[in-house]
Amino acid sequence: MVKMKVNLGGVCKGKDWRDDFVRKFDNDNILFFNPLKVNWKWSNEAKKEKENRIKSCDFLVYFITPEIEGFSSIASAVDYSNKYPKKLLFCAVESFNNKKFSAHQWESMKVVKDIVMNNGGLVFETLDEIADYLKNAITVPYNRT
Length: 145
Known about the structure:
- The chain is about 40% helix and about 20% strand.
- The chain is an alpha/beta fold.
- The chain has a five-stranded parallel sheet with strand order 2-1-3-4-7, with helices on both faces. A two-stranded antiparallel ribbon has the order 5-6.
- Strand 1 (about 5-10), helix 1 (about 15-20) and strand 2 form a beta-alpha-beta unit.
- The longest helix has 16 residues, at about 105-120.
- The chain is globular.
C-alpha cells in the first residue's frame, strides 16, 4: 500500500504541536514530514528541498498559533492555497499554550482564513478536525494532485 505523505508546516516557535499531532494516528499508512531544523537558514538549496517535499506530499497541514514569530508560514499557506488548494489543510487558533492573539491580530488571521478558503484550501477550527479528515482520507481513495 502506498503511504500518504503529509507535510507539517506552520508555527515553529514554542511548544511543538507536531509530536502531539502525529500521536493521534496509529496508522502506518501515513508518512509525516517535520520540516523543523536546528539553525535553519533560507537558501536556494533549502528552497529547492522544500519545493520538492511540497510537491511530493498528498497533504500540507499548516497550523498557526499565537506563538508565531515570523510570517513565512502564513505566506506559504496562502501561496499553497493557490498552487495546491486540494492539498492544503489550514488551522489557526486564537489561543494556544497560554498565549493569545491580540484582537487586531485575530481579525487579521480571520482574513487569512478567508483567503485560504476562497482559494480552495480547507480551513479547520482545530487540529483534531484535521486529524479526523486525514484518518478519513486514508480509508477512501484520494487524489494525488
